[in-house]
Amino acid sequence: MSEAQIRRRVDELAAEISRDYEGANPLLVTVLKGGLYFLADLSRALTIPAAIDVMAITSYRGGSPSGVARLLKDLDEEITGREVLLVEDIIDTGLTAAYLLRVLQTRNPAGLAICTLLDKTARRIVHSLPIRYRGFEIPDVFVVGYGLDYGQRHRTLPYIGTLSDDPESAPLLGRPAPPGR
Ligand code: IMP
Ligand code: MG
């Protein structure tokens, strides 16, 4: 997905959210670090007042498929009685989002829904997630860029792409320098 495609879709989602959450002053919550880029662009495209907050978790994706997660950094904000929108970069198995929803639900928010930029439905294990907004549905391929990383690399790319198997064509780490530099 190119920078322009992402921008267009983020603007569409922001318009929908602005309509649905009119007067609700929602709290947009994301998870470090992958969701930062999407949260920043999405929140700035809203036309309603909103607040943001971030959480950090560990997930043991490499070690076990259980998706067991532990909270490393909690929210700063109280969410009891508030409209909360969990903003995710990607939902794959859904285990991470299910864990986060469980944690947030115990605090009795007024509402709790998910906005994910990317959705890999083919790999879903948890089917009951309240995904209210979805940027793009993608096939079961590993993607990087726009916050998504592979071993902490490629997060800062302004677009989303797949990794090549060919070591000679190492993925671009950034935009080409503008002429004259
Ligand atoms: P889930 O718990 O399986 O839904 O996994 C969600 C997390 O896995 C995301 O927040 C990402 O950190 C990571 N992840 C899943 N698929 C990809 C991908 O294609 N590229 C980069 N990270 C991914
Ligand atoms: Mg993530």
What does the model show?
With 181 residues, this protein is of the alpha/beta class. It has three helices and eight strands. The strands form two sheets. The protein has a six-stranded mixed sheet, sandwiched between helices. Strand 4, helix 3 (95-105) and strand 5 form a beta-alpha-beta unit. Residues 173-178 have low confidence and may be disordered. The chain binds inosinic acid and magnesium ion. The site of inosinic acid (IMP) has 15 residues, from strand 4, helix 3 and strand 7. Residues 34, 67, 89-97, 142-144, 148 line the site of inosinic acid (IMP).
The number of helices is: 3
Gyration radius, rounded:
17 Å
- Overall morphology: globular
Q: What order do the strands of the largest sheet run in, or round the barrel if closed?
A: 3-2-1-4-5-6
SSE order: HEHEEEHEEEE
Strand content bin = 25-35%
Bound molecules: inosinic acid, magnesium ion
Summarize model confidence as the mean pLDDT: 90
Amino-to-carboxy terminus distance = 27 Å
- Helix/sheet category: alpha/beta
* β-strand number: 8
Helix content: 10-25%
**Main β-sheet: number of strands, strand sense, barrel status?**
6 strands, mixed
The unreliable regions are 173-178
